[in-house]
Design a protein that fits this description.
The structure is a single chain. This protein is α+β, with helices and mostly antiparallel strands and 236 residues long. The protein contains 6 helices and 8 strands, in the order βββββαααβββααα. The protein has a 5-stranded mixed β-barrel. β1 and β2 form a beta hairpin. It is elongated, with a radius of gyration of 20 Å. Bound molecules: zinc ion. The site of zinc ion has 7 residues, from β7.
Length: 236
Amino acid sequence: MEIKADALVLRTADYGEHDRMVTLLTADRGKIGAAVKGVRKAGAKLRFAAQPFCFAEYVLAERAGRYTVISASLYDGFYSLREDIGALYAASAVCEACDGLMYEGMVDGRLLVEAVGALRAMAAGETARPLVKFLLAALRLAGYPVRAGDCPFCGKPLTGRIAFEFAGGTFCCAGCAGTPASLSTYHTVRSALGLSCDGALCTEDGLRRALRLLRAYYAAKIGGDLSALASFLGLF
Ligand SMILES: [Zn+2]
């Protein structure tokens, strides 16, 4: 059986003499593995389709639950991501998070839309802000939204000493629950969620702190470390 699927390459692994496996995030079939045969031969026509970050319409042959790529029409290869190490790590963190969030068989086309949007912004030169936005969206789709409103425990607006409570994924007053967090993290997250925020607190440092918080929250909820995010934070 032949199927068509819009998909993003999350990762690749060489096998055999000339072949490569690609892990695809698709819009309507979740995450699937597919073989690209002969793609490591000189002049292989499908070379572009077996590269990380390739976003294309794939035509796949399915046999007994195994997929082989027959052809692909490129939407975007996001090639400029490879020219900047920060952009490369940020984009890799997007793919790593998708890979971790989408167990085989889980289907949510919105994750593909969010991932492609983030890679597009990163290819255009912005890295930390789209990564914060993407991680918030991806965690929300996985059922772990981050809440950055008033304190859910006492109802007061958050000023002064605040905290983040990992069990509920929510900012709160330092006196109510959680581990200490900064107002710049809170306002950077609010900005990324499209909520009103104090622009003076949405700084580079706020982005760095928000990414550190999201890394810890991802590890707490999904399990596993986002190593590309760790590498990105090492540069940022
Ligand atoms: Zn409170």
